[in-house]
Amino acid sequence: EANTVTFPADAPLLMTIATAMEALAVSRTTIYRMVKAGELEAVGIGKSTRIRTASIQKVAASGAKTRKAA
Questions:
Q1: Phi/psi of residue 39, each to 5°?
Q2: C-alpha–C-alpha distance, residues 59 and 62, integer Å
Q3: Integer Cα distance of 65 and 70 in angstroms
Q4: How many distinct helices (H) and strands (E) make up the chain?
Q5: Residues 6+ apart with CB under 8 A from 68
Q6: Phi/psi of residue 3, nearest 5 degrees
Q7: Cα-flanking dihedrals φ and ψ of residue 62, to 5°?
């Protein structure tokens, strides 16, 4: 069964790294690894990095296997 992550219709377009970690139940390192691999879309705003909510939904819907880094 594929993972399902649902956000409200009025959910923000971007989320923090911490929120992305929680949504996918993975570590910060894994989020950055997924960004580097092109699995997640990141946007830099000043010194902050945000993840596109749509890319989180896409990864969750694909049933991609992710492991929480130790």
A1: -80, -30
A2: 5
A3: 16
A4: 3, 3
A5: 25, 26, 27, 30
A6: -65, 145
A7: -75, -15
Instruction: With a cut of 80, say whether residue 37 has pLDDT above it.
Output: yes
Q: Which residue has the tokens 């990141």?
A: 42
Q: Which two tokens stand for residue 65?
A: 């296997």
48-52 and 42-45 strand pairing = antiparallel
Q: Give the Å distances, CA to CA, from 3 to 25, 44, 46, 49, 68.
A: 11, 27, 32, 24, 15
pTM for the full model?
0.74
Q: Is there a contact between 50 and 16 (Cβ–Cβ < 8 Å)?
A: yes
Whether the predicted pLDDT of 43 surpasses 70: yes
